[in-house]
Amino acid sequence: MLEGIGILSLTIWVPIVAGLLLLALGGDDRRADGIRALALIGAVLGFLVAIPLWTGFDKTTHAMQFVERMAWVPAFNIHYHLGVDGISMPFVLLNSFTTVLVVLAGWVVIREKVAQYMAAFLIQSGLLNGVFAALDGVLFYIFFEAMLIPLYLIIGVWGGPNRVYAAIKFFLYTLLGSLLMLVAVLYLYFESGGSFDILAWHRVPLTLAAQLLLFVAFFFAFAVKVPMWPVHTWLPDAHTEAPTGGSVVLAAITLKVGAYGFLRFVLPIVPDASHELAWLMVALSLVAIVYIGLVALVQADMKRLIAYSSIAHMGFVTLGFFIFNPLGIEGGLVQMISHGFVSGALFLCVGVMYDRLHSRQIADYGGVVNTMPKFAAFMMLFAMANAGLPGTSGFIGEFMVILGTMQVSFWWALAAGLTLIFGAAYTLWMYKRVIFGPVANPQVAALKDIDGREFLILALLAVCVLALGVYPLPLTEVMHASVNHLLEHVAHSKLSY
Amino acid sequence: MTFPMPDLLPAAPEILVLVMACVVLMFEAYAVRGQADRSEIVARPRVAGYVLTLLTLLAAAGLTAFTANGVSATTFSGMFVDDAMADLLKLMTYLAGIAAAIYSRQYLADRALMRGEYFALLLFAVLGMMVMISASHLLTLYLGLELLSLALYAMVALRRDDAVAVEAAMKYFVLGALASGLLLYGMSMLYGLTGTLELNKMAATLAGGVDNPVVLAFGLVFVVAGLGFKLGTAPFHMWVPDIYHGAPTAVTLFIGSAPKLAAFAFVIRLLADGLQPAHADWQQMLAVMAVLSLAIGNLAAIMQTNIKRMLAYSTIAHMGFLLLGVMTGELNGYGAALYYVVTYVIMSLGAFGLILHLARAGFEADALDDYKGLNSRAPWLAALMAILMLSMAGLPPFVGFYAKLTVLQALVGAGWIWLAVVAVLFSLVGAYYYLRVVKLMYFDTPHSHEPVLATPGDARLLLSVNGLGVLLLGLLPQPLLALCLEAMRLTYG
């Protein structure tokens, strides 16, 4: 291991350096095979360097681990400060893992500007790891905003017909949120006596008025990313137009950044405002769960349907966070990880079909099971997980959140429980229309089943979904200490300091 | 009566540039007359003027860097000052002059503009800026300003057979003269009020209180309006898009870079130095001008189809951001504004340099549509342009982000949170049109697939250094940031 460079730095910089290398070498699509191999090596290496985070993780403490800290911009007291706890560590792994899948998923499909495509994903991966690992406000902000750039290009260059609109909408929407956060970050810098240390901000006393304003600023930044109703409208467009890999990264990782922000910034920094406005957050979450669930039901485009289902599932996450009990927060976190696998897998499934038929419309399919039995089996599993079937990862998170909500209010829990019905309805109905029934379209009759590469991707995800569904303890164990500490912290008012 | 010889050492770089500007001018005149062979007439001065200019600026940079010691040295009976801020700004001015010369060479040669006049005018303009930067007296300030302006008017009109350029020059001249008039009128009121033209003494007198606050207010309004003209901030911005658009791109590049440094020095010397006691009065005016500039600059830039016009409006917005830093009236804010203007000049040089790089004989590459699909034709140039545009939009990890962060930090620190919110919201609008350039280059298909013409290696290298520098300064902002803050602290701390 390189001396002086921490594991977290490696998880950030290995993919970025690999991406820059690709950019330097690439350009000529005739050498695409070499480029792809190199990209895969970079992605796998990025995942391998992240594994020690899991094996070397101390589950008994809530303190930050694998900490790296050095002065970066002393003029403003900005530090290159990295560290993970039980809340952020799983996401670094999830992200590094997803990157490998994304590189594999784009293997054959992407034929133009291969080097730039792969490089964008690798750089994006490194930046996302940075978001989860950053413990300095400015460093976080830099990763948080810089990650928009590769995703903007991914959607805009390799996306669908309406990609330009989707890319710009995505970018400006999310930028609006983060710019307000920048002002909040600067305000906290002065309130904390000139420090950008996020952990120090957790201890800064703030008046209720200041907390409420900070809450609003952070809310915009993170709610847009989650996305919460009513600032969700960019997501269906971005998801639909993005290439498969882009959709996977969006759904599996970038949405998690918003939810993660609530745990890292909003709850601990403005606990009183969080309690004060919890009703609003719960209400928005329930709207997302119920209303967006209904919206998903009527979608004719598979990607749009999954995009709306993502919003509904992320509603569960924010609901879990703002009921302030361990079940809720851990349930939300498990749901985030699970959703990363499940929605990623579903987008890959749609990608598999899209690569063959070049259509995302449900109506164009029907009877796919006849020609693609292996694929149908995989998609069945993921559809079930999306519907929250016990034994899959989708069930664990939703169940924990509903249990936690039940402790607070029966009616909220009931409303949240509706999702089990809606989720099953829209997912399984789509599954039925696409996979079963008579073969209506002659092109479907000519479909080839998945090849070894696609099998590998889907199998990897299937294992994750089942493992997490049957035995989630290793994951929740990691989170316990940090979540409990967070809840203790949030329970203390900052007003009385 | 004896005439005491002033201490010339603090003004040594100015003297050097003055002498060399005259040499370049003379060389042109005599070299042409002395030559019989016509081809050589064209060839000789071309290279000589170019090389002499580069050497002069390098020598001046060496001289300034060598004598920079962080101590303020005043000479010419308190009319001229050489301090840390002046040294830093002058070094940046030379740098901008060198970059302008290197970037422009091919463009000028293609258009038969590669004449000694261009370089002589460039050196005179640099000299004017240097005088402005080092002025500690209203007369010196005005002298430098006029020297700069006259050189620029002539440079804009360099293509005298081009109607657009001549119109732009006329407009520039008339509006510039009007601005100078406003400025002089304001200065005369301040003189009447305080009885001095020396900035330090003026500050001391004003600090003691004035008998007639109405005159002070009037004087301030005229002075600030004049400053607004020179900086190109709304509502005195009307000339900016026309000049940027009408002038040959090589001249636009120059106008869009170094003069911003001098204008910044102008604002700081006048407001932060001479009129500091009236801070509460000019603060409000600057706040209004800043917000208007952000609004008009960013909104109008969206509608442009010409990249030079678009960048002109973006300049207006950037200057608005700069004023936000100055407006705080605190050392922190001045330092932030200094950092902002320095980084802006670096980005602006790169962006116009790239436009020059793509232009060739008979083709200006100044329509936004000319950038369609650039990524397919020249990926490296597209990447550089993308870096520059995203940096101007203030996105991390590029230096433009730190520039905005620094100013916002000063604003929030001074308690102007609502202004900070306004500023970031307009940055969002700004992000749209910068992103549109990225969109054109990456998402659209090119009109033609012909490769970009090869340009001189030095310009290409400089362009790469410039673009990567914007990235590198964003990844490691400490050195430049600390330098700017330290220079301000040494000067006004």
Summary keywords:
heterodimer; A: mainly alpha; two-stranded antiparallel sheet; 74% helix; globular; B: mainly alpha; 76% helix
Query: Could you tell me the strand content of chain A as a percent range?
Result: under 5%
In DSSP terms, counting alpha (H) and pi (I) runs of 4 or more, how many helices of chain B? 20
Low-confidence stretches of chain A: none
Helix content of chain B: over 70%
How are the strands of the biggest sheet of chain A laid out side by side? 1-2
Shape of chain A: globular
The Cα radius of gyration of chain A reads 22 Å
Helix content of chain A: over 70%
Rg of chain B (CA only): 22 Å
Number of helices of chain A: 22
Mean pLDDT of chain B: 87
Q: In angstroms, what separates the terminal alpha carbons of chain A?
A: 44 Å
3D shape of chain B: globular
How much of the sequence lies in strands of chain B comes to under 5%
SSE string of chain B, helix = H, strand = E? HHEEHHHHHHHHHHHHHHHHHH
**Strand count, sense and closure of the main sheet of chain B?**
2 strands, antiparallel
Write the layout of secondary structure elements.
The complex is a heterodimer of chains A (497) and B (493).
Chain A: H1 7-25, H2 32-55, E1 65-73, E2 78-84, H3 89-105, H4 114-133, H5 137-146, H6 148-158, H7 163-191, H8 198-201, H9 208-225, H10 234-241, H11 244-269, H12 271-276, H13 278-297, H14 302-321, H15 326-357, H16 368-371, H17 373-387, H18 393-408, H19 410-435, H20 442-445, H21 452-470, H22 473-491
Antiparallel strand pairs in A: 1-2
Chain B: H1 12-34, H2 38-67, E1 73-75, E2 80-82, H3 84-110, H4 116-133, H5 138-156, H6 163-194, H7 199-207, H8 213-231, H9 239-246, H10 249-255, H11 258-274, H12 279-302, H13 307-327, H14 331-358, H15 374-377, H16 379-392, H17 399-413, H18 417-443, H19 457-475, H20 478-492
Antiparallel strand pairs in B: 1-2
3D structure, described in words:
The complex is a heterodimer of chains A (497) and B (493). Chain A is mainly α and 497 residues long. Chain A is 74% helix and 3% strand. Chain A has helices spanning 7-25, 32-55, 89-105, 114-133, 137-146, 148-158, 163-191, 198-201, 208-225, 234-241, 244-269, 271-276, 278-297, 302-321, 326-357, 368-371, 373-387, 393-408, 410-435, 442-445, 452-470, 473-491, and strands at residues 65-73, 78-84. Chain B is built from 20 helices and two strands. In chain B, a hairpin with a 4-residue loop joins strand 1 and strand 2. The longest helix of chain B has 32 residues, at 163-194. The chains are: A mainly alpha (497), B mainly alpha (493). The A-B interface holds A 23, 27, 72-76, 113, 116, 138, 141-142, 145-146, 148-149, 152-153, 156-157, 163-164, 167-168, 171-172, 175-176, 179-180, 182-183, 186-187, 189-190 and B 375, 379, 383, 390, 395-397, 401-402, 405-406, 408-409, 412-413, 417, 420-421, 424-425, 427-428, 431-432, 435-436, 438-439, 442-443, 477-478, 481-482, 485.
